[in-house]
Q: What sequence folds into this?
């Protein structure tokens, strides 16, 4: 029996190894052929002209994720504080299931709503030709990372020992001061973990943003159509020929994305470790 | 039980032998074709139909691009080259012979609410290269133009850009991964213009006239609609094809192939 469980445990490790090795093997040839510098810092991605620079894709992914964090983290954090500390019970019981439902909505549905509601709205408000843009992608991503941030931050806030808050209130601090000066700092590594997890979700998302970002490999600008690392792979994979440099370069994008996500995970582990020790 | 199995096997063998004998000419062999990726659909339809006719002939297709398909047949590395453009003079000088099997029209589509219904090739080129950015410059509403296209590597994109003469110079607002996406999004945005294979165009979008000619099977066939390209099978002068390859070429250019070519979304030329 022990052996069976061990086998199950090892399977997960095996898959990770398999995917890593596969990505490295299939991602390296194109980088070698194009040159690491020209691949990572080239400003033009145009397979038709044999130009494979993914700087626009990297910057778009970074800006898009950063934008989502800038919008999503404050909203998520304040919602978490409200839920954990201030909300009347009945209201919390309405909001909490709504948040978990938000987490359960498939990303293609986010994309669909973004495509049918958000994109035409942006087109009309800003008088854009199409409306598919980095801005639309940021808004969709911000909503998508909300549940991650809210539920993790809330758990962290609720784990803060009651004595801290009671001491603060007894010293004459108001409730608001207590929540933001005492509870939030005490829960800060948990909240940081929530943010990092949100970043991980945002940078790995493909489907939803493919439907609202326009997918042209422009240098990122808020109202322009952009292409993320993830969507760069999915949009060109179908028609790229097997064995061509284009196909290989798509795997190299995958490798870069994989490294990004590994970095984020390593960072997350660091944060969680500090929480345990602190 | 054993006896039954044996007799079954023998029967099956006999039936197989009978079927093999049924093939129209009893030819066998392999035909290697090589070239245009845009011809994948047409080649798929043709090889499938041909397999039913001549089950013993295997037709291989590898999509490497028109240029390498033509040089392949000239170098003798394949039996039939496939090109989705007309042959160049220097290729013909080297002995390449073109057999047109199909024509492929690319329609330029706009939203039905857009009053513009007729564009010149030059205007289309200017729109797609970003020289014209507002519909009012063409006599339409004062609205920015959203230029929709396909992703790099798409055969439709290559064909459109080559024929209109805007290769690699297009400034797209959005790129989409399929013809259906382009049509769906043009149908959903009054500012949009895009292109799609003629066979995929439906009434949710308007296919504009190009230089006054509306795209249709008839105008593609008689050549008056200019955004079109031929699908060509290329052989080499003086090199005799194998029996199998000749049979496939004859089939592909015969009237019999017309329905399969139409099913693959192209226009039968003759």
A:
């Amino acid at each position: 029996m022990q052996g069976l469980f061990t086998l199950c445990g090892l399977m997960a490790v095996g898959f990770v190894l398999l995917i890593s090795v596969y990505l490295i093997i299939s991602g390296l040839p194109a980088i070698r052929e194009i040159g690491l510098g020209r691949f990572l810092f080239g400003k033009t991605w145009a397979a038709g002209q044999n130009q494979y620079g993914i700087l626009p894709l990297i910057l778009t992914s970074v800006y898009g994720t950063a934008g989502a964090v800038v919008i999503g983290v404050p909203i998520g954090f304040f919602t978490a504080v409200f839920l954990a500390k201030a909300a009347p019970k009945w209201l919390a019981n309405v909001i909490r299931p709504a948040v978990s439902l938000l987490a359960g909505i498939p990303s293609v549905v986010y994309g669909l709503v973004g495509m049918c509601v958000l994109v035409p709205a942006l087109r009309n408000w800003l008088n854009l030709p199409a409306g598919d843009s980095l801005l639309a992608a940021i808004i969709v991503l911000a909503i998508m990372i909300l549940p991650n941030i809210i539920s993790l931050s809330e758990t962290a806030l609720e784990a803060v020992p009651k004595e801290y808050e009671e001491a603060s209130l007894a010293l004459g601090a108001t409730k608001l001061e207590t929540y933001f000066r005492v509870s939030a700092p005490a829960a800060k590594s948990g909240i940081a973990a929530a943010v990092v997890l949100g970043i991980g979700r945002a940078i790995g998302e493909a489907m939803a943003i493919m439907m609202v970002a326009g997918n042209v490999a422009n240098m990122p600008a808020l109202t322009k159509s952009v292409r993320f690392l993830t969507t760069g792979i999915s949009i060109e994979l179908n028609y790229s020929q097997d064995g061509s440099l284009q196909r290989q370069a798509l795997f190299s994008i995958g490798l870069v994305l994989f490294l990004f996500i590994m970095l984020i995970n390593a960072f997350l582990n660091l944060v969680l470790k500090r929480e345990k020790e602190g | 039980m054993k006896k039954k199995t044996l007799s079954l096997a023998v029967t099956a063998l006999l039936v197989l032998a009978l079927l093999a004998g049924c093939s129209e000419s009893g030819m066998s062999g392999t035909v290697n074709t090589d070239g245009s990726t845009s011809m994948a659909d047409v080649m798929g339809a043709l090889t499938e139909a041909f397999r039913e006719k001549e089950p013993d002939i295997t037709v291989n297709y590898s999509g490497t691009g028109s240029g390498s398909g033509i040089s392949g047949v000239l170098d003798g590395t394949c039996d039939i080259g496939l090109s989705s453009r007309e042959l160049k003079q220097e290729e013909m000088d080297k002995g390449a012979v073109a057999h047109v099997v199909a024509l492929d029209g690319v329609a330029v589509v706009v939203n039905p609410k857009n009053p513009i219904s007729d564009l010149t090739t030059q205007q289309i080129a200017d729109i797609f290269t970003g020289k014209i950015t507002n519909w009012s410059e063409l006599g339409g509403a004062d609205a920015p133009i959203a230029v929709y296209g396909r992703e790099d590597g798409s055969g439709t994109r290559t064909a459109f850009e080559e024929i209109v003469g805007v290769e690699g110079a297009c400034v797209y607002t959005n790129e989409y991964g399929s013809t259906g996406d382009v049509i769906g999004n043009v149908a959903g945005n009054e500012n949009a213009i895009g292109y799609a294979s003629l066979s995929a165009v439906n009434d949710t979008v308007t296919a504009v006239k190009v230089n006054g000619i509306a795209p249709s099977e008839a105008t593609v066939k008689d050549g008056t609609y200019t955004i079109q390209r031929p699908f060509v099978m290329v052989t080499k002068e003086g090199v005799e094809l194998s029996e199998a390859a000749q049979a496939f070429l004859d089939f592909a250019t015969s009237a019999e192939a017309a329905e399969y070519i139409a099913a693959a979304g192209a226009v039968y030329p003759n």
